[in-house]
Amino acid sequence: MSIVIRALSYAYAEQPNVPVLNIPEWSADAGEQVFLQGPSGSGKTTLINLLNGIFPASTGEIEICGHRLDQMSARQRDKFRANHIGCVFQQFNLVPYLSALDNVRLASHFASGTSGTSGRGASRSAEDLLSHLNIPKSLWHKASSQLSVGQQQRVAIARALVNRPELLIMDEPTSALDKKNRDQFMTLLKELLTEQPATLVFVSHEDELASHFSRHESIVEINQAAEVA
């Protein structure tokens, strides 16, 4: 299993007795591609932050690729995320003053061990991904803030994949795209995962994207806190 959740709950500090997430059990196999759909307020972002190790679980277990996030310190979760998890955020979260190339290389800088690369190896991996994602070499050294939305998105994907993560999490990655570009993005994503397999958790409110996935679930159905809210 790539993801195993057991008796997981999460509540914000200001309302500790009001869980926003309550998942008795949920899992995903290694290499599985899962589409999680849900409206605003259903717990999507909270679940992403828990799977990323950004939030600690209030209670319960989160196991990612055989490692228990709920038993790690914040520092250990940060290190684990850098080495094993790639994430594409809705707003991309690129460092605006860094170049496209440096944004991708930055992910390698934070990684260590077998999955991370450094020095010339990191540069080569970053360059290969940018080329594969059709980012012209003339843009590699431009500040990411000067790139188009579509180009920033592809840089964010390269950053998420540069350390060859076992788990790839995507948070509303197509929300800023029109239908044509959204379809092109989904085709590209499938190609990338064929070449570089990873478990994919794709979170979106766009029902029409479900047809691209063999497994489609509603966050409301797995989050009992959302069901009673």
Automatic annotation (TrEMBL):
Pfam families: ABC_tran (PF00005). It comes from the Bacteria. GO terms for molecular function: ATP binding. InterPro entries: AAA+_ATPase, ABC_transporter-like_ATP-bd, ABC_transporter-like_CS, ABC_transpr_LolD-like, MacB-like_ATP-bd, P-loop_NTPase. The keyword ATP-binding applies. The keyword Transport applies. Residues 5-228 form the ABC transporter domain. Keywords: ATP-binding, Nucleotide-binding, Transport. PANTHER family: ATP-BINDING COMPONENT OF ABC TRANSPORTER-RELATED, IMPORT ATP-BINDING PROTEIN. This is ABC transporter ATP-binding protein.
